[in-house]
Amino acid sequence: RPRKYPPGPNFLPIVGNYLEYRKLLQTTGYHHLVWTKLSERYGEVVGLKLGRMLTVGVFGAEAIKEVFTREDFDGRPDGFFFRLRTFGKRLGIVFSDGQLWKNQRKFSLQHLRSFGFGRREMEEKIQEETRSLIEIFKGSAGEAIFMHKAFDISVLNALWAMMAGERFDIEDARLKKLLQIIHDAFRLVDISGGLLNQMPFLRHIAPDAIGYTLNKEILERMWAFLAETISEHRKTVTLSQQPRDLIDAFLQKMDIKNDDSFTDDQLMSLCLDLFMAGAETTSNMLGFAILVMVLYPEIQKKVQNELDLEVGRNRWPCLSDRIRLKYTEAVLMELQRRVTVAPLGIAHRAVRDTELYGYNIPRDTIILTNLYSVHMDKHYWKDPMEFRPERFLNEKGDLVVNEKHYVPFGGGKRRCLGETLGKANIFMFFSTVLHNFHVEKADDVELKLEGYDGVTMAPKPFRVRLIARKD
Ligand code: HEM
């Protein structure tokens, strides 16, 4: 153990704490709960060694805020698993760091904005998507339909319009398959990169068992899909025309050659990152949102009453209604708290030898911010397991939130880049579905808010019946 490393169980040779971790995973069922157990024993900062990776878990609002606000922790882990996605190099945006990440984050935000991100155009795109999806739902009204991934393509479309200037048909079989593969990829490992990162040599011995084979297959499919889109752009883009989308803007920047981080491999990696980050989280959250409506019919009724009062029956909800739809907003905030779709956030890395809470953190240690522990803090939330939207409303019915204790999108310089889009999509789809339909349970099985484990939480398959509401 490094000197004054955060407390935790003793390391074994080669495997470190891997075996103990695995045992705890079997009993708790979820990676974030393994860490919760360790935190109960060792405190706010817990130090493990998983295979060859020093990995530190950080718990509670205070300590996590410190990680978010200190530059020492702004890095992302390096290693086999992370490089596998980016041609053996450190590329992309989610798992890159240093100057390349800074340039790419700035570029992405600037250009997503110029193609509508956070603006009226984005809302219009989302509205188009809600209309298409509601049409499809109306076609199957009254039937039992699966909801755990019903929003996959719809939420991706607004992002894809800004990135690639196109939308997908909601029934597009090829894309459905691709998104299924992405869901699978997110279930395959946890955010620390799993065994592929901790003991990469195992891929030579047991490539299937540690997920190497499946991982490669998923990546190859994604690359093939993206290569096609990028090559279409390359054929038609010119330096003299206004860029049509983010891919155009990137290709133009490559031609000017004033920044060597704009390469073919980087374009592919950036698209992969944005596509995956944008596709998985929002869709899962909406799946859970519908699940909550089935689990708590009285909350569903209250949301619908508020929609009828504030929006009326003559038009559909829009983003500017949000400030008046306080209860609906509180339901969505409570949802993000209770589900914490990225329970361990996205792994950070100490970029230099540093300390946290008096413990030494060697350079390159992986830091896992346990966002779940912030949202489940008994002292702060009192009854964290309960689904109670009222905790976000004061006596006057106004929304109240303490940013330190509510971190679904992380914080600091690494905070989620897609927050505005994610929130807009969630609000628009949720409110429009409830404005149009009563949501009823379709099967006689017990439904629970607990989802599949992985990099993100995903709702398990469930079906509902959508019953059209009267105008
Ligand atoms: C409900 C929806 C979403 C949730 C809960 C969510 C949550 C998060 C969290 C917790 C992080 C990690 C913050 C950290 O490192 O400490 C993150 C990062 C990120 N998210 Fe999201 N996200 C959502 C939607 C989106 C969307 C729609 C996009 C699409 C553009 C996106 C793109 C990203 C990117 C690119 C990063 C990495 C940022 C960086 O490393 O600089 N996210 N997100």
Structure, described:
- This protein has about 475 residues and is of the alpha+beta class.
- It has helices at about 20-30, 30-40, 60-70, 80-85, 100-115, 120-140, 150-165, 175-190, 195-200, 200-205, 210-235, 245-255, 265-295, 295-310, 325-340, 370-375, 380, 420-435; strands at about 45-50, 55-60, 145, 350, 355, 360, 365-370, 435-440, 465-470.
- A four-stranded mixed sheet has the order 1-2-7-4.
- Helix 1 crosses helix 2 and helix 7 (about 150-165) runs antiparallel to helix 13 (about 265-295).
- The radius of gyration is 22 Å and the shape is globular.
- The relative contact order is 0.17.
- The model has no long low-confidence stretch (mean pLDDT about 90).
- Protoporphyrin IX containing FE (HEM) binds near residues 93, 416 and 422.
- Protoporphyrin IX containing FE binds near residues 277 and 422.
Descriptive key words:
alpha+beta; four-stranded mixed sheet; three-stranded antiparallel sheet; 18 helices; globular; binds protoporphyrin IX containing FE
Set out the fold topology:
Layout: H1 18-28, H2 31-42, E1 45-50, E2 53-58, H3 61-69, H4 80-84, H5 98-114, H6 120-139, E3 144-146, H7 152-164, H8 173-188, H9 194-198, H10 202-205, H11 212-236, H12 246-256, H13 264-295, H14 297-310, H15 326-339, E4 348-349, E5 354-356, E6 359-361, E7 366-369, H16 371-375, H17 378-381, H18 419-436, E8 437-441, E9 463-468
